Structures are given as C-alpha cells and as structure tokens.
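Entry type: protein chain
Record version: 2
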Amino acid sequence: MQRFEPVETKDGVRAFLFKAWNEHQRSWEGALGTAKDILARVQADGDAALAALAKEVDGVEIEPEYFFVPKGEIEAQAALLDVEARLAIEAAADRIERFFSKERYPAVKLEIEGGGFLELDSHPYERVGLYVPGGLAPYPSSVLMLGIPARIAGVKERLVITPCLKGKIHPALAHALMLTETTEVLRVGGPHGLAAAAIGTWRVRRVDKLFGPGNRYVTAMKQCLFGRVAIDMLAGPSEIVILADQSANPLWVWLDALSQLEHGSGDELAVVVALSKRFEDAFCSLNPEDFLDDPELAARAAALKENVFLVPCQDKALAFQIANGLAPEHLSLQVENPQALLSYVRHAGAVFLGHYTPVALGDYALGTNHVLPTGGSARFWSGLSVAEFLRRRTAAFVTKEGFSLPAVPSMRLGALEGFGLHAASIEQRLQRDE
C-alpha cells in the first residue's frame, strides 16, 4: 500500500492528483506508437498483416479463411458449458436486458408557424464492432454488456472481435454470443483486430463504430482510429476510487480495491480515501490475505495490495474534489447515508452507493453496464448504454406559406457572415413568391 500524506487543503488535493496521474498514466506514448505501427501494417497488407500479427502478438497461427467463427462451432461449444455457468450467464443477461430495455428515445416533433415541422429522431448504426478482451480469460460478461444494448437499439450487424488463443471459442463465451444473437465473430482480437474492423480488409468488412474495453494497446488503437470510425469511449485498464468513513468494513474496502487491480495489466488504479482516522487505522492494520482461504487468492491479494493508494482526508468536500479530479471509472461511496452525498459527484463512470453495492456486482449481474470511461475521460464520456448505438437525426419541412418567417433573418445572417450565396438561395425563393 502506498500511503499519502493527509490531504487538508486544496493545494493538497492538487498535489495528490498530480502525483497519482503521473504514476497512473505510464507507457501511453509507447502504446500509441505500437498502435500506429500496427495500423500501418493492416492498412498496407490487409488480411496477410492480420494473420501475421495474430501469430506475433497472440501466438496464434490462423489463415484468413478461418478468421470468422462458424455458427455451428459456436453452438457446439455452447453445448459444452456446465449448467451452473449457463444459469449465471442467463441471470446476468436477464438483469441487463431489463435495465436497458427501459431506455426510450422518442422522436421530438415541433410544428412551426406558418406551416411545416422540425423533427428529431434516432436511428441505430448499421454495423458495429464489439471488442471483447480474451488474452487472460474468457469474458462472457463483456459480450452481454455490449451485445444486449446493441440488440435493443436495433443494430442489424453486430461483429464481436475477440482473441481465441486456444483456437476454439470458450463455451461460456459461445453461450453469451448465442444469447445476444451476435451476427459475426472475428476470432482475431487485440489492436490488430480493431484496426481490421475499422478500416476493412478483403475478408473483414468495416464497421461504423467500435465499442468495448481493453488494455492500453487496445485503448490506444481506438484513439488512433477515432475519425476513421466512431468510438464509444476510451475504456482502458480498470480504476476504482473508494470513499470510506468509520461505518465502512475495512476488509470489504480492501477486497473491492484489490478486485479492480486483479485485471492484471499493471495499469489499473485503486485509491482509498479515508474519511476518518478510525477507518484509516483499521484499514492500515489489516492484511486482506489473512482472510482468504484459497492460498492462490491470498498470494494474489498480498502482491496486489502494494498498488493500492491510501489518502487520509477527513474533509468531505476535499475528498470529493479528489474523486472528481480523478474522474474514475468506478466511484464507491462506502459511507453512512451515501444517497445524500450523490449530488457531490460530478465526474465518474459509475457510482456505487453503500456497503452492499460492491463494484463487482456491476461487473457482472447488477444490470448496469461495466463498459465505462477510464483515464479521467468520465469528465466528458458516459458509460455504455443503448444511446451509444443510436445516431440522432433532424428533419425539417417548411411550407410555402411558412417560408418567409425563417427566411428573412436567415438571409440577413448569411449576408452578415459574408456568405452571399447562402443569402441568394433564400432571396431567390422570396422573389419568386412576390
């Protein structure tokens, strides 16, 4: 654990934020450079580059004709899944479906003076790429988090991009793919899989927008591709900030912090802000590994706990300045009456209120989405929802009788801005009516 000096002033907040981000934002330049090189190779050599990169990066030999997983293989692999795992995936899918099916974006229509209307409505993307990590383990939860909102939004073509390091797709992943009715599965992941989906190759048709979380290289590739395609957000290595007062259970706080470091890239961030001296002392004196019966888990906890930041801060307003300054992916308020403090939160991907709402629930079966902005980007991006799969479009209709009302001020503004042809396109219509 890295223990900081108590934060007691605004200058203390700034000093902590500066140090925390300097340590957290490491290797980005290297990751961006790698992503640019990969993109250039895929752009130059298409499918051949994608196959070569799968071998170089993932150690997987795959010919282009086998890039996509056949439907029969998905069905066969799903049939191998044990009953308990199947039920868990289905329970999570049901909760996610119920939550996101409540999103509604009705068309807005305004009748205008003189005759005509203005309208704002939503339309789904035609084809999207859904990135599901798979380097360390299968992540059926990410298939659900991405695939269910995309299906609810009405996206017709939903391409899942995921590495299959052992050749066959994992049974848990296969079952999640079937539940979400995924239309295609590209079994080449990593930044090279994203590049192929964004710019297109002979075998991989390009998508309109990319979605999903990943490591620093995947996140860097999304940043490189922005503008060639749309992206949902920069959803990189996991982050958690926990505000804990004397009512918090120190062991629970430890485990919540460690659970987000468990993702294992080394770029994760876990910050515990101690709002009371009593909690601070209890937290510092506790070894979480002593409470874990599984020796492997205990060893993992002992290794990861050195990467937890502890920040003593008994001033609640300053504590929220720290939280909002970090703009973390996950913000956990393990305090008395957390609902009363929600209004203090300005920047966070997702907020978890109280002692019985651990972030781990949100990662799996709570019903909210675990694809969230990281790296401080919660200041300007939101967590994934149905809205991200929709484009907003306006339509306008003006009658001949209603034309003059917007025409005169529009014509004058065109002339004012030096765009005479704008003004002329309006003026000619006015003259014809006279």
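Comment: The mean pLDDT is 94.
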